[in-house]
Structures are given as structure tokens and as C-alpha cells.
Specification:
With 81 residues, this protein is an all-alpha fold. 83% of the residues lie in helices and 0% in strands. The chain is built from three helices and no strands. The chain is rod-shaped, with a radius of gyration of 19 Å.
Length: 81
Amino acid sequence: MKTEVKHFIAGGILMFLSTLFIPQGISDFAGAAARGAAVPPGSGVLLAIGAVLILAAIALFARGQVLRHRARVRGAGQRED
């Protein structure tokens, strides 16, 4: 399997994993705002973990795209012989 494909797959997995953290954190904040109560202490951590996972996924997608572009440029340069 090509390296760029591995980057795209890993990025997709990280995006999926972020959906386990972000909605719960947002729900905790929204519930606290609706009740007028204090925000549960773990909500910020959930949002931070989700944000880090999304940033890592974006970085992997970008890296996969750069590797794919380099391979295409290298391949095009070799065909001109």
C-alpha cells in the first residue's frame, strides 16, 4: 500500500475517533448553559482531545496530499524521456 494512502486512512480514523469526544463535550457545555449550572470538569478535556485529533487528522490528510503530489510530479518528469 502506498504511503499517501496510509496517511489518508489514518487521517480518516482520527476524524472518526474525534466524533467520540467532541459531541460529548459540546453536550456537556450546552446542558450546563440550559440548566444554568456549572460546566462539568471533564468537558474541556473532551473538547481538547477532540480538537487535537482533528488537527492531527488534518495534518495527515495534508501530508498524504503532498506525498501524492510529489509522486505525480516525479512520475511526470520520468515520462518525458
